[in-house]
Specification:
552 residues, nine-stranded mixed beta sheet, 18 helices, globular
Length: 552
């Protein structure tokens, strides 16, 4: 840097404008106030547990009828949820069909028009006497999304926030800034995702709750996958939920803020959106006309015919639940690594037993040295490994791509086949048969979010986990392991077209990376990160060598 540039920088810093002084003053005040904030003590957390008699509910009886019709000795049934539309309607059906309890656990619930329909259904469930428990990781509950917390003040709905950050919810930036003294704790998040109705039927997988997970986002929509589960495995999911719900890190929302405080954070309504018709199940609704109509008292909608669930293609199969203990969030990272007793560790152990092939879908793929050694050992047995992950352009967390890029050449040198999803898909993802098709009709970009492993065409693993160090060492995760050739084949038939028609195949050519264009795309092969902006490519070069992997 030249002396002149130093002098100019010095002048600009020593002679700030009045606006800059005001901005700095506000920043220092917010940091000081946030730094003084702390979590409440002596919190009242009444211990509650899952419904003990699911067989007495319509959902429980529907699943018993399905099992009887299948004439199976297996005690758990599964049905793949492979589209955004089915993901949304499945959740709505479970909420509307619940008669006794709803247990809901998510990393993120966004406040938008799509989730508001789910919230209306939850309020209706509470009104008809269903006990609703919502357990939400606290990290994404600031700004507009803070309004989700209002559910915790509704009739028969209890909400707890897991591992909360102290301080104001007006801005995530300032919440994190005020918690920097506790960096290790705040980056440990509850990443589990499940919705359980009457302890009889559950849905779990990669999706959070928000318009971008149900194909309704205007910018980017996530390509995701879930599975519906019934029978014995649901009781195991519920026991896991209870462990988190009754954990000291789960704070009732009322212990952290009041309904009045939430109201002050309510964003101003967007006037321009008032005239925009909103798509629902049926004709478009004009919100302008709706807002002009007089307020009326409505009754809860009639329950749907729960036999709709039994009409799905249920596969009854042996299964195992992989789930992290809630204590993982409070544990030291080194202790977690030494224990090798996490969801991801269990998954890696299964993968190590592969005999012929592994098909992996992981949106954030940062193996780390220990995982790389396991991949090398698997490849030495002659096992074929294929990986579908995000490209730099499709990744909603580009920093994660930084960690993945460090290992890309070594992975390819092992003989691992890598496919990177294209961000630019034409309209919907149905063009390649729809791995968790977004169902979007607005031509938005696609970002991979599914977490799937298919092992030897026999085992299907689907859950919340990524194959990265954050999932392995810091976040809590959940996954179902299902032994079924039928489900493994169905899932493979969804993934393979996505790799062939919707992703670049990455190869090594004389030590240099080459991205082979998807079949039928009329695109050309390239030797640089495809579809990515200059800024993203520059970030990859600048941050890549320095960013710690466990934080990516």
């Amino acid at each position: 840097m030249s002396p002149l540039s130093i002098q100019r920088r010095s002048t600009s810093l020593t002679q700030p404008t009045g606006a800059l002084w005001r901005w700095l003053g506000v920043l220092l005040l917010v940091v000081w106030v946030s730094g003084c904030a702390s979590l409440p003590t002596d919190v009242d957390r009444p211990v509650t547990t899952a419904l003990a008699t699911p067989q007495d509910t319509a959902l429980g009886q529907a699943m018993q009828a399905s099992a009887a019709g299948a004439r199976t000795r297996n005690d758990s049934g599964f049905s793949l949820v492979n589209s955004a539309e089915l993901a949304f309607t499945s959740r709505m059906t479970l909420i509307n069909a619940a008669q006794k309890t709803l247990d809901i656990q998510y990393y993120a619930i966004h406040a938008d028009e799509t989730t508001e329909r789910l919230f209306d259904a939850l309020r209706a469930a509470g009104e008809r006497g269903v006990r609703v428990r919502i357990l939400l990781d606290d990290f994404n509950t600031s700004g507009k999304n803070a309004q989700v917390l209002k559910l915790g003040f509704e009739k028969n709905i209890s909400m707890r926030l897991f591992n909360p950050l102290p301080g104001s919810r007006g801005s995530l930036f300032f919440r994190v800034l005020g918690s920097l003294k506790d960096t290790d704790r705040i980056q440990r998040r509850m990443h589990n995702k499940m919705l359980v109705a009457d302890n009889a039927v559950a849905i779990t997988g990669g999706r959070n709750l928000g318009e971008t997970y149900f194909g309704q986002g205007e910018g980017t929509n996530f390509v995701d996958a879930d599975v519906l589960a019934g029978g014995r495995i649901v009781r195991e999911l519920s026991r896991s939920f209870d462990q988190y719900w009754n954990n000291p890190l789960a704070y009732p929302v009322q212990s952290l803020m009041s309904a009045k405080e939430l109201e002050t954070l309510k964003p101003a309504p967007k006037v321009a959106a008032a005239d925009k018709p909103v798509a629902v199940d049926g004709p478009a609704v004009d919100r302008t006309a709706a807002s002009a109509a007089p307020a009326t008292t409505t009754t809860a909608p009639p329950l749907p015919d729960t036999t709709n669930l039994s009409k799905l293609s249920w596969t009854w199969a042996p299964s195992v639940l992989l789930v992290d203990k809630a204590s993982k969030i409070a544990a030291d990272a080194d202790a977690v690594e030494l224990s090798q007793d996490t969801t991801v560790d269990g998954l890696l152990q299964l993968m190590s037993d592969a005999k012929s092939n592994l098909l992996i879908v992981s949106p954030y793929f940062v193996p780390g040295e220990r995982m790389m050694a396991q991949f090398a050992a698997i490849r030495q047995k002659g096992v074929r490994i294929r990986v579908l992950t995000n490209s730099l352009a499709s990744n909603d967390a580009p920093a994660a791509h930084v960690g993945y890029a460090r290992y890309r050449k070594d992975l390819l040198a092992m003989g691992i086949e890598i496919y990177e999803m294209r961000a630019e898909q034409e309209g919907t993802l149905s063009s390649f048969s729809g791995l968790g098709s977004t169902g979007s009709a607005n031509g938005s970009r696609a970002s991979l979010h599914s977490k799937i492993v298919v092992l030897d065409d026999l085992l299907l693993v689907i859950g919340s986990m990524n194959l990265d160090l954050r999932s392995q060492l810091q976040n809590s995760e959940v996954a179902l392991v299902i032994r079924s050739r039928k489900l493994a084949a169905e899932t493979t038939q969804l993934i393979e077209p996505a790799m062939t028609n919707g992703a670049y195949k990455v190869e090594l050519n004389d030590g240099q990376l080459v991205w082979r264009a998807p079949q039928g795309s009329q695109l050309k092969d390239t030797r640089i990160e495809p579809d990515a902006s200059f800024a993203l490519k520059l970030m990859l070069k600048l941050i890549g060598p320095f960013a710690p992997e466990e934080m990516l």
